[in-house]
Sequence to fold (250 residues):
Amino acid sequence: MSSPSPTPNTYPYQNEPTWSKSEKAIARTAFDAALGRELHEVIQRTKQMANAIQQSSDLWDLEHYLTERRKEIDRKYDYRYSQLRHVFGRLLYEGRVSEEELRGLRDDKLKSIRSLAEYLAKDAA
Amino acid sequence: MSSPSPTPNTYPYQNEPTWSKSEKAIARTAFDAALGRELHEVIQRTKQMANAIQQSSDLWDLEHYLTERRKEIDRKYDYRYSQLRHVFGRLLYEGRVSEEELRGLRDDKLKSIRSLAEYLAKDAA
Fold:
């Protein structure tokens, strides 16, 4: 890592914190748990919407709901270490991950995660 | 109708049969009945698929199913008099409309509808 890498993906960005082995394990567990819970919610909502379908417009409302959820989930759950602090910041703001689940990450990461969550909360207010 | 119309939509195409008032009524009833049955099938299948969802891939399979059905239905149910013989030809081939329901259309129209249905049946064989 002392010389620039030829591939942009491995180039060490400035201010890009490294993730220790134990931090990676914590991040993976918290990430997967939040994604699993969000998918579970979408599954439950889909079953409710499907059971309530009476006419064609309800069908296409369900299609639209699924397309939007898929795009949102794809965008939100980006497991690149360069993105993880933003990902967790949003999940913390949305109540999809708890501080408890992030315990064990280094303080600088937690600070940056909390700071984004607070920014989003203020922005929405 | 003795002089060419300035708007292309009302221009009397060659070989374009006219539809009498009673034929229009028959066509509308048969068209709406076939569309209603097809939508009912999609609704039933959607409820089945939704109830069987266990994991995220099942969700996106349902989304894909709905998108495909919507596109196919949009393409297939084209209620323009210039298209109706093709529409009924396909619906007859698919068993979504019966000859019974088309009874009362003029013979030239029925012949052209049957002929497309037979062509599609041969093409699929």
User: Anything to note?
Assistant: Helices of chain B lie at 21-51, 56-76, 84-93, 99-102, 107-124. Chain B is about 65% helix and 0% strand.
